[in-house]
Amino acid sequence: MARFVDPAGGDRLMCWRDAAREVALEDCGPVRPFPVRSGRRFAPGWWWSATTGRLVHYESGVIRNQVMQLDRDPSVVAIVALPATPEAARRTIPAASPDVIPMRRS
Prior knowledge:
It contains 2 helices and 7 strands. By secondary structure, it is α+β, with helices and mostly antiparallel strands. It has one domain. Strands 2-1-6 form a 3-stranded antiparallel β-sheet. It has a two-stranded antiparallel ribbon with strand order 3-4. The protein has a two-stranded antiparallel sheet with strand order 5-7. A hairpin with a 5-residue loop joins β1 and β2. It is globular, with a radius of gyration of 14 Å. The chain starts with a strand and ends with a strand. The model has no long low-confidence stretch (mean pLDDT 81). Keywords: Plasmid.
């Protein structure tokens, strides 16, 4: 199951396969906040993407560099930050959310 925040701001839970088909993840908000931690060299921020024509949130300097590189790639049509997180009935290991998902031309 995938948990995501729909464009209206509501929390949604649905099968990954259905979410990939039915939900425009590039229009969804991040599934968790980007924390600011004092003493860190890099803080979360926003990158203006020429590809999408909107701001893309990044969590660290490493992710910012990935977003910058994806923004220059002509095959990328959208860049999504923390669009979904896996949910399981019995969680034995912590769930990991993808930091950035590039949407490419098919």
